Amino acid sequence: MAISGLVITYNEEKNIGKCIDALFEVCDEVIIVDSLSVDNTVKIAEEKGAKVVSQKFLGDGPQRTHGLPFCKNDWILNLDADEFLDKDSKEFILKGKYLEGNYDAFSFRVKNFLADELIDFSGWYPDHKVRFFNKKTAKPSEAKVHQKIETTNEKKVAVHILHYGWESFEQIIAKKNQYSTWHAQQLFDQGKRVGAMKPVINGLTAFVRCYFFKKGIFNGIDGITIALIQGFFSHMKYAKLLKLQRQEKLLKR
């Protein structure tokens, strides 16, 4: 069956060419929903044969949903620009194994890399994501941060996506900081309210889980660094939510 590749982008000139080439190995079309990039993302995408739809960023879930009507096929492979199918996931798709059974979405395992180093500790592996689904019965949620595919019949399969998301710890910290801000705002908009100890409790819990229970302790300086980052930004998400709550109280006064 024909498959549509769907990617949301913003300033991804470094990755988008390789991403599109890889998608065309299993897809017969590639749709790019671009958030008004100011680099060469759009030019490269069009030269590679992708169709580009320009749309100011609506949030993670809504941006992906915006691209669905432009996809002519029911089956959607929705990767990020820095994600690629591993050999086993290519085989899974090309051999039509996804047509076995009545499943409308598939959750793949994600291998996360820091530069060229696989981070398979601190809860980063196996990290499951639904990136392959049938748009007739499954779709991205409306969550603006870390959206999930809403599905009626999902299956986890032991095949992999390769995620080259960070070149340095600085990039991890910058992205985590951005996500924690978005996530705090999303929780606030949903009416979530927390007490003063919530950031501390969640931060400590996240660190302990990543460092002791998710094998960070066995991976030297990288293990403790990743665990500290996870703990800190779990703390910051709720610290930022508390700040929004205080601002709300001040406005009411």
Automatic annotation (TrEMBL):
Taxonomic superkingdom: Bacteria
Keyword terms: Transferase
Pfam family, one: Glycos_transf_2
Residue span, Glycosyltransferase 2-like domain: 6-94
Keyword Cell membrane: no
Keyword presence, Nucleus: no
GO molecular function: transferase activity
Similarity comment: Belongs to the glycosyltransferase 2 family. WaaE/KdtX subfamily.
This protein's name: Glycosyltransferase involved in cell wall biosynthesis
